[in-house]
Each structure stands twice: as structure tokens, then as C-alpha cells.
Design a protein that fits this description.
alpha+beta, 2 domains, two-stranded antiparallel sheet, TolA/TonB C-terminal domain, 44% helix, 139 residues
Length: 139
Amino acid sequence: MNRTFLRALHAPVARRLLTALALMCALPMLAQAQDAKKIYELSEVDALPKLSSPSYTSRLISEAYPDNLRRAGVGGAVQMELVVDASGKVDASQIDAVSTVPQLIEVAKQVAPKLEFTPAKVKGTAVKSRVVLPLVFKP
């Protein structure tokens, strides 16, 4: 057979093989990038996120508690839903809160970004996760 014919025959095959090899190398990086964006629910993680310092959290809540509400004896809980990233920081753009005391919601939303967590883990790797946390304000 003619060598030129063989080269022409093998060139498309070689290109396909190189393309397949490049894709195989890129897939793990693509999967990792998608995982970085994913927000894991607590049921999907191996290790739950934890507040790094409950005493620091208590101090933040106490310092943020409005004096007028404290003097009036108004207390209550704010149910927070937060997204904690893989470094343990709260994503300030993803904070939801509900409470029977509306004035405490804004205070809780100011405290939440200052909270620090040990992040959730999946297969030993820190991941972004959703956290539900009650913040309790006592007069």
C-alpha cells in the first residue's frame, strides 16, 4: 500500500484518539469545577459543618442585640438558613431568616456573615453546604 494513503487513513484516527485523550484529562477538572459550585444538603455530606467557636457566636449575638429590645425584654429566636463555603465562611448573598420578632431578623442577618464554621466534608474534601441555625436573643 501507498504510504501517503496510510498516513491519510491514520491521521483522522490519530486526531480522534488525541481528542479523546484530551477530554479524558479534562473531565476530572470539569467535575471538580462543578462540585465547587454545588451546594450540598446536610444529608449529602459525610461530616457536618460546625460552628468554629460557639462562645464567639454568643458574643456576636449579645453585642448585636439592640438595646431598646433588650430593655423592653423582647427576645426570640431567628431561624437562619445559610450557605457555608468550603473555607468555612458564610456566603453573605445567601442568607435567609425567619422569626416571630421581625426586628431581630435584620440583626441576625448582620451577625451571620461574621460566623465561622468548620466546613462540611464529602470524602474528606471540604465542600459548600446549606446550614440551618437558630440564633437565640435573650433579654
